[in-house]
Amino acid sequence: MHPVRELARLLLPVACPCGELDVRWCAGCAAHLAGSPDRAERGAPRLDRLDRVPPVPVWALTPYTGPVRDVVVHWKDRGRVDIDRLLGPAMRRAAARIGPVLVPALGDAPVAVVPVPSTGAARRARGREPVTVLARAVTQGLHDAGIRARLVPALARRGTGRDQVGLGARARGRNLSGAVRMTRRGSRALGQRSVCILVDDVLTTGATLAAVERALEEAGHDVVGATVLAATPPPAHETEDRTAPAAGSRQETEQNLKV
Length: 259
Ligand SMILES: [Zn+2]
Known about the structure:
By secondary structure, this protein is an alpha/beta fold. The protein has 10 helices and 8 strands.
């Protein structure tokens, strides 16, 4: 190895979250983020609604598996803010691809790009809101597609929301129910009625997105879609068509929402 490079590694070791040394991110990990976004809402059971309205369309840039998990964990919780420069451009490209698909739903209306808020504890631990980086990139990508978009961090978590880690899907739903509120500034920025696109980092059950969608709809706004960096793939036995869930699962969802 070149002596200068060797010295640099001793002083400032860098590695891709997957373990590859001497690069901030490797070509393999970057390649996972270079493809086209895919629809992911069918893999998120908590996005099912009771009013026969189909779940909000969610586009995910990549499945939340393998090295992508490492990248996200290091980016969010291990201080790798430099990974903004990998994920931001990737989300911007994804949003530019999604933009034309959204145009029929948007018409001429300008769109508000609303990041899903972190819990207060997570924000304090991280010293920032990583999702805002993604939301800013989505705003730019929609601009690239000729859509009038603006970033509106309109929401906050209520204090009662516990950390989601270790909770099952049902408990997560209870934990989140009513745990999202509109901030005063957000309410002013959205005005009477805005068309909104949500942005989050990882889609798992959809409980968080559903809570955010509810909060915005209750305030009179329209949520036309959501875009996430990565989505947890559904279990293998659930990959078949879920457009007609069994009566039991629908009832179960209803019970969860009553809390
Ligand atoms: Zn890597």
